[in-house]
Amino acid sequence: MLNHTWEVQLQQLRAELILMKESIKETSSDIIKGGYSKHPIFIAHREDIEIGEVILDKDDMSTHWSISASTLEEFVDKGVVQADKSDYFKENFKDPKEFICMFVIHGTEARFVFIPYRASALDNN
Description:
Number of domains: 1
Largest sheet: 5 strands, mixed
Number of helices: 5
Strand content: 25-35%
Helix content: 40-55%
Distance between the termini: 16 Å
Number of strands: 5
Order of helices and strands: HEEHEHHEEH
Strand order of the largest sheet: 2-3-1-4-5
Oligomer: single chain
């Protein structure tokens, strides 16, 4: 269960994703079609991070969150996902055509969430 602070942050992120979802979906498709990975991961962050590549910068977009693109393979290489847990991660990975796999970093905490692309799911909350 998420605490109130996380709920507020996720609500704010969902509101911003309404503006960003098409760019994220296109990047996800490019990662898969380009053969880079079958498991694209997007990182929502407020501070600079050392994983992934920024695709939507909060300063350029006047938002609270920047979004970086990465892959499961990079997360394993950087030790964010343990190598022996990658199969479990793949088994539980939702269809990237329907869901954004988002790694949300807030303060010293981080969590994976799957967010549907469809507008009604992003508009709620």
